[in-house]
Design goal:
About 65% of the residues lie in helices and about 5% in strands. Strand 9 and strand 10 form a beta hairpin. With about 950 residues, it is mainly α. The longest helix is centred in the C-terminal third of the chain and has 28 residues. The termini are far apart. It is elongated. Helix 35 packs antiparallel against helix 36, helix 46 packs antiparallel against helix 47 and helix 47 runs antiparallel to helix 48. It is built from 49 helices and 14 strands. The protein has a 5-stranded parallel β-sheet.
Length: about 950
């Protein structure tokens, strides 16, 4: 066996880097491992700081350092390095192994050399010694792997082995880990956490650190180099050994965040071979992202994507992005497909595809997906059909002002005969929106304008006839409404249009309820349900819900409860959130009549949460009205009065003339029972109004209540309060970072075990319809490595975090599974800060004066920072932007109020707006102007400097030039 000289540089740690960060958490892990008599392996790709970490940590220890290269793959060279390293590092150490190396002439002598070294170490090493083998992967071979295995097994207790490598030795490490003799530190542990990122970049805003971590994968090399040095480092350390064909494939795969076999084939024309994928995984250029999905290392992807976009011909790029978008669209990820098309020159394709599916999505209740798609298309959504459909969407959500504006835009662009149908649809939509707001005169005007363009279209004419009936019903002309709906039904029968026939029949049921003819109403709903069987349109599937309500009026509450249960299951199957709220309210009403007060309260809790999440003001008012019925049935008059006060606030007007008569009826009943002084006059006005407008049953039942009420006022007027009657089971905060509370106590991290469980809960609370497991993998954890098994574990951890006492096999009260979909229990009592925030904004839209100001102040107070700043999935980003935009709009409205009422508060509010969006040109300019107008040039200059620093740090650009001119003039 021939030995060789060993350069001194191989026997010393690498020199320290001036900007190197001491990583106390990892040094503590190394300390703990050595104290526990464990060996250590640090296995990670290039640039994870393995050598830097261990060199800093070992400086205060007795350390034998060796750095290997490819020449050390032979046993004689490997053993020579080890022997010389021990002799140089340990004064007085001598070993028979050196003599054996010099005399040996064959490979088999290696065992004798190693045995002699181990024996001398056992005899001479009394104090602790750490043997570090750096860059082991360069010398890895079957023979050196076998030698490492023997070292791990036979090193004496005083000597601990630390191996640094990009790939683990090909030996069984599991048994050593199981016996607690080996500590493995990998890329996940070596990646910088947020604390370390903050220490490395102290000038970086704290809210930007999670995004920085995701963009780099926490890779230390990426966080400590300039972009030019980083590109060179990636080339030399990661890509240098990559075959050209694989490198070319990687460059095209960089256009997608994650890929599976199908997407890979769409991008490359053929899937990656098993050998290519094995190479990429081994080199850590690619990591697993779920069971059959993969993703490029984020830093590598960033470099390759920039190179591809700079070097590939435009036609090639366009074709590739078209294929990628098509692949996502085909695999039921249409929003991602749209983003690829829109962002890369295929706007017309995106608009056409969305136009093809938009009406179906609206009918199926896929409202959030449709809204996200329209938002992604942006200004291109000025397409005529999409304008009308977007108007229908906002009308469905109850934002009638926005819907009316969109319809008006559609009318403006609808020129020529070809656009007549869409113009008519827009006018009919405007009429329906006006009717929903109670503006019957405007609704009739829009209806008349619609008639000018749509007579030739039978379906539109039917829609118009149904609208005429609705307008007549709103105007109190019940008999006229019945004539319209009957005419629509006859015409629909002639045209063979079962859909419109079912809707007209359904509307007749509403008329019969108005007249108190409940048996006829029941027959109408039965007929409508028979006609509409199999159709998922929400307008039709209100029939089984209304049918259950009729059964309550017929004093058949048990039958009504069963019917409402069936209706609830139906609308949930079709994922119709608004209709689910209706069904829950009727189910709760039936339970009140049956005396099941606690289950009724759970139904109303769920209905209220859905109404708040959907921005459904009318649904919220109905829910509060039913809650008043519940409180009244329980004998809680104070609670009932509080609820009817909330109804009045939500509807904006508590008078009989302007209010909905069902609300007024409950108010009259509670006021009479409480003996309020104004109760009798209120009830009398209600009776007159009900009989005048055809609400015979409301007038008659209120008259009976009035007859039984005492003549003189009874109890004194109770103070109205809007406080909730019980604490939510779960409270969730998403603004400024995720926090969750059980019965008022924060759920600790140890109960969650993983951040994925928290993210999953946030998704369920903001998407009440839930999702299949495949959708959760593709949407909630997009860009992460989450397998099917890990998803099951995450769901289990979420359930246990919410219910620590949940036993194995016991169903969860919160996270439910039905028809292959997971969803949060809509009947659970949960409070979410984002929903409270949007509720305050809706309250501001309905309120006037000081009440509007308080609601806006409440909304801005609730906005405690970015929505889930620790996550950046597509659905999170969309919600984050929407909520931030709403908060900024609230600031704008409140600034106008403060300017008129309390100017001294305006500056503070402008500063608050800049906390929400530090880069807002509008608010930066406004604040600077206010300082200048107040003759405070120094503060104006300070604000400009803050703005300039933010623009430079976050965007690497200068602020608008006119801002500089403002402060320097």
């Amino acid at each position: 066996m021939i030995t060789r000289k060993v350069p001194g540089q191989k026997l010393a740690p690498p020199p320290s880097w001036p900007r190197a960060l001491r990583r106390s958490r990892l040094e503590s892990a190394l300390d703990a491992a050595i104290a526990a008599q464990q060996h250590v392996t640090l296995v990670a790709g290039a640039g994870y700081g393995k050598s830097t970490l261990v060199a800093a940590w070992s400086a205060s220890r007795t350390c034998v350092w060796t750095t290997l290269d490819a020449d050390d793959a032979e046993l004689d060279a490997f053993l020579t390095v080890l022997v010389v390293a021990f002799e140089r590092a340990l004064p007085g150490f001598c070993t028979e192994a050196r003599d054996l190396l010099l005399r040996a002439r064959d490979r088999d002598a290696a065992h004798a050399v190693l045995a002699a070294l181990l024996a001398d170490l056992d005899e001479q090493c009394v104090d602790p010694v750490v043997l570090v083998i750096d860059d082991y992967h360069l010398a890895a071979s079957p023979s050196t792997d076998a030698l490492i295995a023997r070292l791990l097994k036979y090193l004496p207790p005083a000597v601990r082995l630390v191996i640094l490598a990009r790939k683990a030795p090909e030996i069984s490490l599991a048994s050593l880990q199981a016996a607690h003799r080996l500590c493995v530190i990998g890329e996940a542990e070596l990646a910088f956490d947020l604390v370390e990122l903050g220490a490395l970049h102290p000038d970086q805003p704290e809210g930007q650190l999670p995004a920085l971590a995701r963009a780099t994968g926490g890779w230390p090399a990426a966080l400590g180099m300039t972009s030019e040095l980083l590109d060179a480092y990636v080339d030399e350390e990661l890509l240098a050994r990559t075959p050209a064909a694989i490198a070319a494939a990687m460059q095209r795969l960089a256009v997608v965040e994650a890929f599976d076999a199908d997407l890979c084939e769409d991008v490359l024309g053929a899937p990656l071979t098993a050998a290519d994928l094995t190479f990429l995984l081994a080199e850590r250029l690619v990591t697993r992202h779920g069971q059959d999905r993969f993703m490029l290392h984020p830093v590598v992807r960033n470099l390759l994507l920039r190179r591809y976009m700079a070097s590939a011909p435009r036609a090639e790029r366009q074709a590739l992005f078209e294929r990628v978008g098509e692949s996502y669209w085909r695999n039921d990820q249409p929003l991602i497909g749209l983003r690829y098309w829109i962002g890369h020159g295929h706007l017309a394709l995106a608009v056409g595809r969305l136009r093809d599916v938009a009406e179906a999505w609206l009918a199926e209740g896929r409202l959030e997906a449709l809204a996200s798609a329209l938002e992604a298309i942006g200004s291109a959504a000025r397409d005529l059909p999409l304008l009308v459909i977007q108007g229908d969407l906002y009308r469905r959500w109850g934002d009638f002002a926005a819907a009316d504006a969109l319809y008006e835009q559609a009318v403006a662009v609808a020129t020529g005969e070809a656009a007549a149908t869409w113009r008519t649809r827009a006018r009919l939509g405007q009429a329906q929106a006006a009717a929903a707001r109670g503006n019957i005169a405007l609704a009739r005007q829009r209806r008349a304008e619609a008639a000018l363009a749509g007579k030739q279209d039978g379906r539109l004419e039917l829609d118009a006839m149904n609208l005429d009936g609705g307008l007549a019903l709103l105007g109190g002309a019940t008999e006229e409404a019945i004539a319209c709906f009957e005419a629509a039904a006859r015409m629909a029968e002639r045209l063979g249009d079962a859909f419109v026939l079912a809707r007209a029949t359904h509307n007749l049921g509403i008329c019969f309820i108005r007249l108190g003819e409940f048996e006829r109403a029941l027959a109408s709903y039965d007929a409508a349900m028979g006609l509409a069987s199999g159709d998922a349109t929400p307008a039709i599937w209100m029939s089984p819900i209304n049918r259950a309500l009729v059964l309550i009026h017929l004093d058949r509450p048990a039958e009504a409860e069963r019917a409402a249960d069936a209706a609830l299951a139906l609308v949930r199957r079709f994922k119709l959130a608004r209709e689910e709220g209706y069904a829950l309210r009727v189910l709760g009403f039936a339970k009140v009549r049956l005396g099941s007060f606690e289950p009724a309260a759970a139904c109303f809790d769920a209905a209220e949460r859905l109404a708040r999440a959907a921005g459904d003001e009318l649904g919220l008012a109905y829910t509060l009205n039913f809650r008043a019925e519940l409180s009244f049935a329980e004998g809680d008059l104070e609670g009932a009065l509080a609820r009817i006060a909330e109804v009045a606030l939500a509807m904006g007007d508590a008078s009989v003339a302007a209010g909905i008569l069902e609300f007024a009826q409950v108010r009259a009943k509670v006021m009479l029972a409480a003996g309020l002084p104004e109760a009798r006059s209120f009830a009398s006005a209600l009776i007159v109004r009900a009989l005048d407008t055809g609400y015979k049953h409301i007038g008659e039942s209120t008259a009976r209540l009035l007859e039984r009420a005492p003549e003189a006022p009874g109890a004194p007027c109770l103070e109205l309060t809007s406080s909730l009657d019980r604490r939510p089971e779960i409270e969730v905060r998403c603004f400024g970072g995720f926090r969750a509370y059980r019965q008022g106590t924060q759920i600790p991290d140890r109960d969650w075990q993983t951040v994925r469980a928290k993210l999953l809960l946030a998704y369920f609370l903001h998407f009440p319809e839930g999702a299949t497991k495949a959708q959760l993998l593709g949407e909630v954890f997009f860009g992460e490595e989450v397998s099917n098994d890990l998803m099951n574990i995450t769901i289990l951890r979420l359930r246990k975090a919410l219910e620590p006492d949940l036993e194995r096999g016991q169903p969860s009260r919160f996270v439910l599974r039905a028809d292959g979909r997971y969803a949060f229990n809509a009947q659970a009592h949960v409070q979410v800060d984002t929903q409270d925030f949007e509720a305050a904004l809706r309250g501001a839209r309905l309120a006037q004066g000081s009440q509007r100001r308080r609601q806006l102040e409440r909304a801005i107070e609730l906005y405690g920072g970015e929505f889930l700043p620790e996550h950046n999935g597509p659905w999170v980003l969309l919600l984050r932007q929407r909520l931030q935009d709403q908060a900024l709009e609230a600031c704008r409205q409140l600034i106008a109020i403060y300017d008129a009422e309390a100017p001294r508060l305006t500056l503070g509010l402008l500063q608050r707006a800049l906390e929400i969006d530090p880069l807002s040109e509008t608010f930066n300019r406004e604040l600077i102007l206010r300082y200048i107008e107040a003759k405070e040039p120094q503060r104006a200059l300070q604000q400009f400097e803050i703005c300039e620093r933010r623009y430079k740090e976050l965007l690497d650009i200068s602020p608008p030039a006119d801002l500089a001119r403002l402060v320097l003039r």
